[in-house]
Amino acid sequence: MSLEIRQFLMGSDNFGVLVHDSETGATASIDAGDEQPILQALAQTGWRLTDILVTHHHDDHIAALASLHHKFGARIVAAGADSHRIPHIDLAVKEGDEFTVGTLKFGVFDTPGHTVGHIAYHLPKQKVLFAGDTLFSLGCGRLFEGSAEQMYHSLQKLARLPAETALYCGHEYTLSNGRFAMKVDPSNKALAARMHDVETLRAQGQFTLPSTIGRECDTNPFLRADQPDIAKTIGMEGQPAVAVFAKLREMKNKA
Ligand code: ZN
Ligand code: FE
């Protein structure tokens, strides 16, 4: 296996992720919101930064782009659709594009919703997904720019990946997401079990990510808007899944 992944926190809840190809030494940072923790992770691993894969334009994901670009000459990969607001893009990508970091072959998904230009990165062979602020464990990103319908379809696209696909995302929000999930999906035994694990992990200061696509399909209410139990619990019985999803997102904003 030539893939190694290092996950760490930046600030209180932003995840930093380094993706390393041990065959060539190439190393990509997924987003770059904060320089110091990324430099520290690079120093600890001895890896040299060659690429930065940007999921979306929010400051907590791009604030360190310019400085890391200059320090390492790292190539910046980002959505071409966001070239007006993400600086220094070297490789502009969109849905269906493929590119490599060393020998690692990445695919790109457009995942509008949180922002309209949001993208996710996928390693199909290794079955790893970097979902940014689209899909969280037990939750999903807020709709800052896109519509509920856009976000619903973005999430459905990610949910169709193989169940064993490892899920990395932009934030450690699982505990608060889970508290909301338990309210709208109270009879879900897999969710209750996951919450128990999440509470234990957080109490020990450990991360709840990576998750897997299969686990999220079983426990994440935002991937389960088609489940009659959830619709019923939130007073949306018989409504289309996308409407149930929109209502769930609204309720979570106020939770
Ligand atoms: Zn964001
Ligand atoms: Fe974020």
How much beta, percentage-wise? Answer: 15-25%
- Provide the CATH superfamily of the largest domain: Ribonuclease Z/Hydroxyacylglutathione hydrolase-like
Number of helices: 9
Round the mean pLDDT to the nearest integer and report it.
97
Gross CATH architecture of the largest domain: 4-Layer Sandwich
User: What is the CATH top level name of the largest domain?
Assistant: Alpha Beta
Bound compounds, please? zinc ion, fe (iii) ion
Order of helices and strands: EEEHEHHEEEEEEEEHEHHEHHH
- State the domain count: 2
Secondary-structure blueprint:
Layout: E1 3-10, E2 14-21, E3 27-30, H1 35-45, E4 51-53, H2 59-62, H3 65-72, E5 75-79, E6 91-93, E7 98-101, E8 104-110, E9 119-123, E10 128-130, E11 135-136, E12 139-140, H4 148-159, E13 166-168, H5 174-184, H6 189-203, E14 211-212, H7 213-219, H8 228-233, H9 241-254
Structure description:
The chain is 35% helix and 23% strand. With 255 residues, the protein is α/β, with parallel strands linked by helices. It has 2 domains: 1-93, 4-Layer Sandwich (Metallo-beta-lactamase, Chain A), CATH 3.60.15; 105-255, Metallo-beta-lactamase, Chain A. A 6-stranded mixed beta sheet has the order 1-2-3-4-5-6, covered by helices on one side. A 6-stranded mixed beta sheet has the order 7-8-9-10-13-14. It has a two-stranded antiparallel sheet with strand order 11-12. Strand 1 (3-10) and strand 2 form a beta hairpin. Helix 5 packs antiparallel against helix 6 (189-203). The model has no long low-confidence stretch (mean pLDDT 97). Zinc ion is lined by residues 56, 58, 61, 114, 133. Residues 56, 58, 61, 114, 133 line the site of zinc ion.
